[in-house]
Write a structure and sequence with these properties.
Blueprint (H helix, E strand, L loop, with lengths): L10 H4 L8 E6 L4 H13 L3 E7 L4 E6 L3 H9 L5 E3 L4
Antiparallel strand pairs: 1-3, 1-4, 2-3
Protein name: HMA domain-containing protein
InterPro entries: HMA_dom (IPR006121), HMA_dom_sf (IPR036163)
Keywords: Metal-binding
Length: 89
């Protein structure tokens, strides 16, 4: 048994990000400016969101702030648009 030794916690094991301002990237099924407006409305009301970028052509929504990916996913899903976490290929 070793006393006085601490080991760093891997954030992937805890599910928590160590960054203060994480970036969450989503794929959102948007087809028009009305869809963009709906996403803007829900993100504008979400606590912890500092900024966001919406790319209609790529159907990509990038959110920065003190937010958890699952919370952003659930919030944007409330628009009725198909929403998933962005997968890098």
């Amino acid at each position: 048994m070793t006393l006085g030794v601490t080991y760093p916690v891997d954030w992937r094991e805890t599910g928590h990000s160590l960054r203060k301002n994480p970036t969450v990237v989503l794929k959102v099924g948007m087809s028009c400016e009305g869809c963009v407006g709906a996403v803007k409305r829900v993100l504008g009301k979400m606590e912890g969101v500092e900024s966001y970028d919406i790319d209609l052509k790529e159907q990509k929504v990038t959110v920065k702030g003190n937010v958890q990916p699952e919370a952003v996913l659930q919030t944007v899903s409330k628009t009725g648009k198909k929403t998933t976490l962005w997968e890098e290929s």
